[in-house]
Each structure stands twice: as C-alpha cells, then as structure tokens.
Amino acid sequence: MDPVLAVSIFALGLAFGSFLNVCIYRLPRDLSVVRPRSACPGCGQLIRSYDNIPVLSWLILRGRCRNCKISISPRYLIVEILTGAIFVACYAHFGASLATLKYCALGFLLLGLIFTDAETQLLPDKMTLPGLVLGLLFSFVVPVNDLASQLLPGLVPLPVSSNVSWHLWSVTDSSLGAIVGASFIYGAGAIYLRARGVEGMGFGDVKLMAMVGAFLGAKLTIFTLFTASIAGSLFGLSTVLAVWIKRTRRRLRRHHESLGEARRRGWASAAIALRRHQMPFGVFLGSMAMLAFFYGNSFLHWYWGLL
Ligand SMILES: [Zn+2]
C-alpha cells in the first residue's frame, strides 16, 4: 500500500463524505443536492467555503453554527470519517484497481442509505436506482465473482466453454443477484404483511437489495440477506427484552404489583411497543452488504471448510 496514495484516497473520501451528508439530508426531502448552497438549518445563513472543510470545520466550530451557535449533528463528522475510512479500506483490500473504484462507489451508496434509513426510514430512489444501474455497469469491467473463483477454485464448475468471455458470466451473476435480492425482500414483505397486518418492509428495501445484488452477485446477496435477518432479529429481540425489563421495573416501583403481575403487564406493553416500532431493516441490510464485500467470500470459504 502506497502511503501517499492512501492519504489522498482518505482525503477524497472525506470530500465525498461531505457531499454524502448533503444527500442524506436532502434526498429524503425531495430537495436538489446541487442547489442551493448549504445553509445553516437554524438561521439560514449560507455556509462559507472555509466553514465547509470536512471534519476540520466541525471540530474548529465545535459542532456549532458560526452565526447562531445552533448545534450541528455529529452525524456530519461521523459520515465524513466513515466515508474516508471505507475508501481507504477498499484500497487496502482491493489494491489500486477498478475493483477499488467499484467498492468505493458501493460503500458510498450504502453508507448514505444506512443513514437516511436510520434518520427518516426512507431509502431514496435517487440513490438505489442509479446504484442498481451502476452495479450492472460495473459488472462489465470488474468480474462480479472474481474473488469467488480465486478463493474457491473448482468448487462451482461452470458449464463454460472457453470461448464465452467472463463478461457474460459476470453480467449474468450481477443480474441474478439483483433478482434474488429484490424478490426475496418482496416475498418476505408480503408474508410479513399477511402475518402482522402492517408493512414491515417497503419497496425501498426491495430496491436496495436489487442494487446490492447487482454489485455483489447472487452468492454474496444471499449471504447479505441471511446475516441481515439474523442481525435484525437479534436487535429486535434485545430491544423487546430491554423494554420488558424496564417496564417491569417501573411497574414494581410505581404500582407495587407482585413480580408475576408486573412481568405479565410489562410484557404486554413491550409487545405493543414492538408492534408500533418500525425497524429500519435497511440499516441491517446495508451494514451486512458492506461486511459481505469485504469478508463474505473469506467467511463462506471458512464455513465450507468446516462442512
Ligand atoms: Zn446558524
């Protein structure tokens, strides 16, 4: 790894992260990301260019507007640093190659979608749909399954004659990934709607997984779906348990009920809270997709080694 190149890539990541913050705020609100220039949400003062330097400006101003001193969310700082970190991680992992460019693009999109989903429960089409197209286009220049074929030689014998180029397989895998990802979420959403009568997963998640599938191909898409379901379930379960314990304690303190009674009623109210609570599943899908393109193949390789 060339240190000068690594530092430049990190700086580039910070700049992209700064733009990503604009996207995270504006896209769910249907605002243009190009115009007008950024202004303080508190006083409307346009942000001067010297107050718009990634990371540094936030630190120098201690997270406040220079004009009205309203506090600026630490999310701005976090997104910038994370984007820089992801860009460098891609370079460290994939070297100076087109693959690095591809996974920087995917990391950028995923990070934006994770934060918009967490903040607004929306996954804007203006990120997922261009992302889907970009994923398909990248499959022409970066083989979707190149890592797989390196790590798992001969595991999946493709019925390929030597005069069929890898491009065809790559594009097929990319399209298949998009179809698998989208249809799985669509199906799971339909089952969830039947079972609980509320919408658990929206079309945003369907398009998110179509995009992820186009970038990662079918195998890592299944890995993403599987690990995100586990992570989401663990998160949901621990949330319910935490709410249950908290409400049981409160009932014991305030209402002086017997332990059994407090537990029963605490559980009933935790169940209602769960039903009302909408889990941002896109956050889990996005995070696991990120994990998948760095470690998915090594994990599957290790796992198949165990079988
Ligand atoms: Zn202000």
What does this entry show, briefly?
The protein is mainly alpha-helical and 307 residues long. Helices cover 73% and strands 0% of the residues. The protein has ten helices and no strands.
Summarize the structure in words.
The chain has helices at residues 3-26, 56-60, 75-94, 98-120, 125-141, 146-151, 166-196, 203-255, 259-276, 281-306. The protein is globular, with a radius of gyration of 23 Å. By secondary structure, the protein is mostly helical. The structure holds zinc ion. The site of zinc ion (ZN) has 8 residues, from loops.
Task: Explain the layout of strands and helices.
Elements: H1 3-26, H2 56-60, H3 75-94, H4 98-120, H5 125-141, H6 146-151, H7 166-196, H8 203-255, H9 259-276, H10 281-306
